[in-house]
Design brief:
By secondary structure, the chain is mainly α. The chain has one domain. The chain contains 4 helices and 2 strands. It has a two-stranded antiparallel sheet. The longest helix is centred in the C-terminal third of the chain and has 31 residues. The protein is elongated, with a radius of gyration of 28 Å.
């Protein structure tokens, strides 16, 4: 039987909340630049791609106010807003295409005048 030593790490109470409230980890004296290769690896692992975009100053200012209110930076907030918009639009497109396909696949019936029209399903 193999003996293993387990080191217990003492958890500091309230640290999680201190990180969330930015009481911990937000001092510039503890910040440092990441090596460019590591930054690229991080972006790649998160599926991020840097882009360049020009936005109205008023829009950026609005996102800064909203971000400050929610305790977020304006760029992550913009990324979240764009993700939400894209997800909603894609769902809308898929829904519209599904409805169009469903409409095309409805069986036709002949009317007294000889024209054809789709049979409507009862609600």
């Amino acid at each position: 039987m193999k003996n293993t030593t387990v080191t217990k790490v003492k958890k500091i109470l309230g640290t999680e909340q201190a990180w969330d409230s930015r009481d911990l980890g937000c001092d510039i004296k503890f910040a440092k630049h990441t090596q460019p290769e590591l930054a690229l690896e991080i972006d790649d692992s998160l599926g991020l791609q840097m882009i360049s975009i020009r936005l109205n100053k008023e829009l950026i200012a609005a996102f800064k106010v909203i971000g400050e209110h929610h305790g977020l930076g304006y760029q992550p907030l913009m990324r979240d807003a764009l993700q939400r918009f894209a997800t909603a639009e894609l769902k809308s497109i898929v829904s519209a295409r599904a409805a169009s396909q469903k409409k095309k696949s409805l069986p036709l019936t002949k009317t007294a005048g000889g024209s054809s029209k789709p049979i409507k399903k009862a609600a």
